[in-house]
Automatic annotation (TrEMBL):
<dbReference type="GO" id="GO:0003677">
    <property type="term" value="F:DNA binding"/>
</dbReference>
<protein>
    <submittedName>
        <fullName>DNA-binding protein</fullName>
    </submittedName>
</protein>
<keyword id="KW-0238">DNA-binding</keyword>
Length: 65
C-alpha cells in the first residue's frame, strides 16, 4: 500500500498485530488527537506519517518487506 496517504484499519491491525476492533479504537484515539491540532480527519483511516510517528517515533515509513 505504498504511496497512499492514509492507512485503513486492516493495515493498522496487521502492522501492530492487533484485532480490527482494537485497531479502530487506536485510529479513533489518534484522530481525536489530530482534530485538536486543527486537522480534518476521516473515520476509520489515519494519516500514515502520523501513525509511524506515534508508534515508532519517526515520520519515516519502515522499509517494505
Amino acid at each position: 500500500m505504498a504511496g497512499q496517504i492514509f492507512m485503513r484499519v486492516d493495515e493498522v491491525a496487521s502492522e501492530l498485530g492487533v484485532s480490527k476492533p482494537y485497531a479502530y479504537k487506536l485510529i479513533k484515539k489518534m484522530n481525536e488527537e489530530l482534530k485538536q491540532t486543527g486537522c480534518i480527519t476521516i473515520s476509520g483511516r489515519i494519516d500514515r506519517k502520523f501513525f509511524y510517528e506515534k508508534f515508532y517515533g519517526t515520520r519515516d515509513q519502515r522499509k517494505e518487506k
